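Researcher: Here's my situation. A collaborator sent me these components and asked whether they could plausibly form a single complex. I don't have experimental data yet, so a predicted model of the whole assembly would be a useful starting point for our discussion.
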Amino acid sequence: MAHKASAAVPVKGSKLMVIGGASLVGSATVDEMLARGAEQVIIFDNLSFGGQPNIAHLEGNPKVKVVQGDILKLHQLLAATEGVDAIVHLAAYMTLNFDRDPWGGIDVNVRGVQNVLEACRSNKVKKLVFSSSNAVYGYGPGVKGDLVEGVPFHSEGAPPAAILYGASKIMGEQLCRDAFRKHGQDYVVLRFSTVYGERQHYRAANALYIVETHDAIKRGERPKVIGDGSETKHFVYVGDLARACCMAIEAPSTDVAVNTSGPEPITTLQLVNLVAELSGRPDLQAELVEPDPTKVRLTSGGAFEIVHKAAKDAIGWEPQVTMREGLGRLLAWRDAEAKRNA
Amino acid sequence: MAHKASAAVPVKGSKLMVIGGASLVGSATVDEMLARGAEQVIIFDNLSFGGQPNIAHLEGNPKVKVVQGDILKLHQLLAATEGVDAIVHLAAYMTLNFDRDPWGGIDVNVRGVQNVLEACRSNKVKKLVFSSSNAVYGYGPGVKGDLVEGVPFHSEGAPPAAILYGASKIMGEQLCRDAFRKHGQDYVVLRFSTVYGERQHYRAANALYIVETHDAIKRGERPKVIGDGSETKHFVYVGDLARACCMAIEAPSTDVAVNTSGPEPITTLQLVNLVAELSGRPDLQAELVEPDPTKVRLTSGGAFEIVHKAAKDAIGWEPQVTMREGLGRLLAWRDAEAKRNA
């Protein structure tokens, strides 16, 4: 079918929805949309992961509407998406939750995307931004070097939950492609790398290196690193992702999937020691420990870098916040929260 | 958890179920089970692809029970699997049907496996054989050389339906692995390559090279080959797969995924000319044509071979039927069918 010349939707003046809007990335995206002059932002979230505090600061804002709804209930999505110009769809299970409940993960990550696409079609939502993951490149020794958008999915030796999670994101992306081909649904897929930032939670396996390290240091203990500390992780700051979501809505691009990663990768040892330094305890150096076989781990093989050049080309986005800067903000937020709750 | 020393279930004397038992592979597997002395074989099939003629020869056989049921209806599976010793689960959408109805494909290929695993757990089915596919290695130029069991999933440039199909099989395999880890469900995954043989249908994109070629020759036309005819395909004869399903039940192995491919790969040009030769019209040589952009095609890049050595190690299986022999049987069956229906 013929497609429009531009799939751009302005954030300013538009009615937007963030599904999973009470999450880490969701709440930051809502803030970014409001800062860019959105007319209305609907937070659609089932609040199952306790996101209420993430959006408490928006209470009473006349431009914000909270809908406690479930993407597995299509009628709720259909009602909530009436008149919506663009959607950022973030609701998902990640690997740790997939391990506890694979059935729920498949429901949310696959059936959920199907329902969101149905709602987009039914209510003529102009653009969808779908949060995929660098998990589409998989796990283990095959994942190394430059991870650009055509790299295949490696899974040998990875835990079932991790492979299910990665495959669910591959499916979500392809459902978007299929909707574009079959009825012209404009969309941009953002392949998030591991997110960190203010409002950080404990549900992401890789981000545990930050929050568990910070917790250990607060207790005056040496933080732990699994293995020899040489494993690569590539994070991205939550505020950078919030910008990416808005830029993906506003970009003329459609039918494209791009990586959204931070300025550069880091090793687990460097990360843990950086957290110690920023916490004012550079003396508490990392202790190397053996893996706990009862816990799901996401191992990387060789050194890798998640290349975000295609995101610059497609939506004009580049990360702005270094790990040192972003971790400083995250730790300051955690300290403030701890004081507030003390 | 501790696992049994052997996951072998004898076919002889056992009560077995074939889900998708009225299909090409299903009907051959039922025949093989009966030949090996199964006590009872339950054919569980929704007959949505018109498989009735495939099992017409079994009518009146006291050892065979046909249950017209749907794997999406868990209560039907729970009722039908009571007292069953082992299941071969074959019901699936392939790429062409995924293109027409991705929602149905995800239902059958993902939710269906979940339901089958639930039924296995609930009724203590000792062993599950799950039909995966070489689609777990993906499509396009990345797929070349020896395809052994650790090769990653390539998808760049492939149609959404093909990627969805491949990802659905990856998920099905991982759901089996998860069930083994969480509650000791014994299983063997067989990664079928493209099946061909008696009772061949038109639903498999790669097997169209056989049946459409045969149809053209019957009309006295030159058969068509898309592209330059150098693409690799690796088929497997249906009777060899029926043996593999039985051997996977009987093998002590569990928690393993192996390729089941034919003796050797073939190019599309060789295949089409072999069909012409076996049809008695070697003069009707293949005509090379441009791809039809409206049809889903599964392209391969370089030459490849799907290596089946691991199947020999895990379940003692090797293919026995060459393409020349198997194609001869398939064409003879088609000729007999045409005469019967004339």
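Model: Some features of this prediction you could bring to your collaborator: The first strand of chain A starts at residue 15 and ends at 19. The interface with chain B takes residues 102-103, 106, 110-111, 114, 138, 142, 149-150, 152-156, 160-161, 163-164, 167-168, 170-171, 174-175, 177-178, 181 of chain A (CB under 8 Å).
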